[in-house]
Amino acid sequence: MKAISVGLLGLGTVGSGVVRIIENHQDRLLHQVGCPVEIRKVLVRNMDKQRDVHVDTEKITTDVYNIIQDPEIDVVIEVMGGIDDTKEYLLKALLSGKHVVTANKDLMAVHGSELLRVAKEQGCDLFYEASVAGGIPILRSLVDGLASDRITKMMGIVNGTTNFILTKMMKYGSSYEEVLAEAQKLGFAEADPTSDVEGLDAARKMSILATLGFSMNIDLGDVTTVKGISKISEEDLQYSKQLGYTMKLIGLADRNGDKVEVSVEPTLLPDSHPLSSVNDEYNAVYVYGEAVGETMFYGPGAGSLPTATAVVSDLVGVMKNMRLGVNGSSLVTPQFPKQLKEPSEIFSKYFVRIHVKDEVGAFANITALFAERNVSFEKILQLPLKDSDLAEIVLVTHRASLHDYEEIMQMLRDIEVVKDVKSSYRVEGNLS
Ligand code: NAP
Ligand code: HSE
Hints:
Distance between the termini: 51 Å
Number of strands: 17
Structural class: alpha/beta
Number of helices: 14
CATH architecture of the largest domain: 2-Layer Sandwich
Largest sheet: 11 strands, mixed
Bound molecules: NADP nicotinamide-adenine-dinucleotide phosphate, L-homoserine
């Protein structure tokens, strides 16, 4: 019985996990797909690096063409990262008739539609389950499990690094820098963690989720707001706690009628919200479908073995398709034209923290700005600021349009009694 031959691009955090799972699960793979799996070659950058898995030296190469041009290789697994060069390698692999499995959301968010088109034309599979939410099989759940429903909302904690950082900061008062270094050491963070902490990694994942969930071609540039966690202060976390909220980096994809909104930003959730109890590097995606109602998918969003599980499950999918002779036949064309909501059609509550002159009429001046736009308050706190003649005001509004909120923020910055708008965050809570 001929083994399926795999070329592995990358032997880092995820690649090592892939080697381990394929080695440890040979019997299971054989049972599931009826043939063994062999890792034929592995690409690395540095041949001399100490690895925490054993791979025979003769299988290791630093030349990608030894893999993508090897006629014996059936499936290329890409877990090296990168965008432009990696795209070229994967295109070449597909054009030589190889199936591709990737964990690379950076690549899929930008070039996914082109790669999927080429894969289909070539009769090849291109699977990318591990690119969103690590070990949670969320892409399959959207495409297969919820295929009969119309999804109207997805809210996700889809970045493990930032969830790890926020959890440690909120629960133990740890410093941002200290916890980021720990996340890097544990292998959750990207090689350059800027994309984690500034929200870009989550935005890439949300564009993939929205494309599949709404069957609409949502590009990275369609994610209207992309904000990270690097500017969240100790005070913001304290006030969130005091007011009964938990701060999370939330990716939101919302559909009303035919129009959608996709955003990523630090968001306050009521402590009772199911996403509030998703801690550490865990991810969760809340999905609302018109027929099914509320569902939530929870699990480890990063790390070696969880991510590798999703990668190897994709490999099993490719192998099953090979046996059935149906590779490249999954539907990849979005059904609906893209229609994005205008700022006047996007509604949310907001938390705002401002420093104002502690004088008669200051508060009235501020509330007038909100009242002029029919925005009322759900919660208000005012405290004198230590060692200063300023007061700190914390407001949580009722629902307002993004358009009105942005105008109010601009005017707040311009009025004389306001010394500084220290922070403002979206507040979510309604589940559906
Ligand atoms: P990593 O630990 O940095 O490993 C990258 C591997 O690729 C290394 O073995 C490196 O070789 C090799 N590599 C990178 N560029 C190369 C090049 N130009 N030529 C040859 N080899 C090259 O990265 P990772 O954390 O495993 O992540 C891999 C991919 O999975 C990324 O796309 C990432 O976004 C995605 N992902 C990661 C996680 C996670 O939890 N880490 C979760 C989901 C998805 P050397 O070892 O010789 O340096
Ligand atoms: N850096 C990513 C995260 C890895 O922290 O979620 C998983 O995609």
